[in-house]
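Technical note accompanying the year-one report. For the benefit of new consortium partners, we illustrate the data format agreed upon in the data management plan: each record pairs a sequence with a structure-token string. No post-processing was applied to the example shown here.
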Amino acid sequence: MANEDTERVEVEEVVDLEEWAAAGRQVPRHCGGFRIRVNGERHVVREPTVAFERIVELAGFEPGALACVRVRVRGKKPRVLAPGEDVDLTSPGIERFQVSEHCVVEVKLNKTEFELAVPSTGAKVKAAAIAAGARIKPDFVLFLVLEDGHTEQVGDDEVVYVDKGACFKAVDSDDNS
């Protein structure tokens, strides 16, 4: 029943996400707009979801620019968003967004942990891992290990957006196993 009441709440004014998060209040789906902060500047969006690309635009980047977008949720570590990802502004605790040309996250390739600038490419992932001591070569085949344990191949020129704790696997291109 509480969810029904939350869904039916309507507010006529613009809701400031930081204020509502600080007060621990559930942001309503229907209101006069949602005030978000992107790189310190406040913006009002009308829909309850905002896309990665819109956040990049609000930060003043050119359309289609490669950028790292982090969403800050009260009480949690910032999370890196991927292109095409939408953020539900009514999710509990959404506070603000930080956009930069890149951000640095800790990742792992095989058993080597290292820092990676995001967004990155498959070739840059391998180069950063090699610089950190990974026993691979630039011609190894790179895979991103997904949450369900499956893998997805990452080409050398393919751009990847990953968050802290992401795991990669690299195998010799001659490996037939």
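Partners are asked to follow this layout when depositing records. DSSP finds four helices and 15 strands in the chain.
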